[in-house]
Amino acid sequence: EGKGKKRNPLHDFKKTGELMLIKVNKTLEVKTKLLNTTEQCAKRCSRNKGLSFTCKAFAYDRVTKRCHWLSFNSLTNGVRKKQDHAFDLYEKKDYVRNCIIGKGADYKGTISVTRSGIQCQAWNSMIPHEH
Prior knowledge:
Keywords: Disulfide bond, Kringle. It is built from 2 helices and 5 strands; from the N terminus they run E-E-H-E-E-E-H.
């Protein structure tokens, strides 16, 4: 990133157009607010600013200019997808990516088996290998 250039906060999100997530599990949290741009929504989600939960995704209503921050994403149990022309869904790449980048210290995905089908070792376990 060059001097004086601001990084676009949307870079950390995967966009799916015309999709909204509906929570079936009532314990999942959502917060909404009127905001003019998806960039503002992304910045707040990335920083968890003003949220009582870790923001994993947000949906932006293009008609009402309302941001819906979500404590869940499309891979969370108790969530269903709904086609909706007013919304664009933005999910944090860290929570939906199925690959490890670098040493995997920031990996938050859902893959827990190796390519050959062997169950991965838990991070808090020293068996069968020490860290």
